[in-house]
Predict the structure.
Amino acid sequence: MPSRALRRLLHLVVLCPLSKGFQSRIPAIKVKYLLLAWLCVLGASWVVYMQYASYAELCRGHVCHVVICNHYRRGIISGSSCKALCDQRTLSLQRCMSTSPTYQVYSGQWKDRPVVIKCGLQENLNVDGVPDPGLQPEMSLYDKPTRGTSMDEFREMLHGFFKSNLGDQPSLNTLVERVIALADVNRDGKVSLAEAKSAWALLQINEFLLMLALQEKEHTPKLLGFCGDLYVTERVAHSSLYRLDVPGYLRPLVPVAVSAGLNRWLAPAWPRRARITIGLLEFVEEIFHGAYGSFLMCDASPRHVGYNGKYDCRMADLRSVASEATVRGYLRGRHCETNGDCVYGHDCTATCDRLAKQCNTEVAQPNLAKVCMLLQDFLLFGAPSDLRGDLEKQLRTCVTLSGLASQMEVHHSLVLNNLKTLLWKKISNTQYS
């Protein structure tokens, strides 16, 4: 009896929406196939709904545009991109690429070239994108420098900021002058209060600070303009090592083996992956003991490493790269019970001194070891048979490197150069070099 009632219910749900004439013409179709079709429709509808909900939550570019242009028109901020964004409308936010509602990332077009536009958002914004005065008396992001600050005082502010965030480096004055030149939008030899406020706000963004320090390096995107704390960079053609990025809400449903297999199938040819790898290793060299100190990769994710149309490596996202001085300052004196209490960012982990119950300041795993773990998946599949054995051996050695000071200099340089040489010998004098 219950089974008859169930069949009757399925008949009502599945077949009743169809006309009697249509039902009579498809006698061979069984209820289970129609039920399967309805489940497919419901599944597709759920995916569309989740995509829309995710977009609505993450993509708030219109709010960013309203906030920035509101402050520009009030004379609070300035920048080389303000007119194009707010008056001429020649710089527009097009495709949303945001992964956080408080950090907006959009592709766009400016001066006939593809660009990426990035902008931070405060949490306390009303529906019109305007800061709620009850929650925030004035945009605290733009509260420095204050009116009456002289150029010498502003230089001292900048020098102190860089010393705190990058360490006491001998070349900090060069970085100070670079900021002064960047802030002087109208090139009149002076920095207005609005220009100074904008430059100071940008420096609070970790990625911008890194781009400024690594401006002359070839593996970081070039800064093209800014307006307040919104900034514009060149677009990286491929913003991830892998072309298929499964949305978070679908990951429980898609087996890792399936997504990995698809990514391998979609990946560039091995010689091109070798060229990308050489560029990534060069980036690791650039951020190790550079002119402005050392930097640590605190989330070596394939989503942060990209490449251009010529398969030259470009770091698509620098937010997870932090100065060694910043990481050490965070860890110094920090109370801990286990190593898990001594983590900066995603995976910059130090050891816990269980006797003193304080974190040590040396990060256990260096940049090169993290990158080599990434390369084990990216580089080994499809590798030439005469190279694969040596490549596996080099990568195994690389992933076991530690961040101890005794290993950091000679050993790391030797492993890195061996990897680069191995790859370069294979692709040199070919079309891929």
Remarks:
- The two ends are 74 Å apart (CA to CA).
- The chain is about 45% helix and 15% strand.
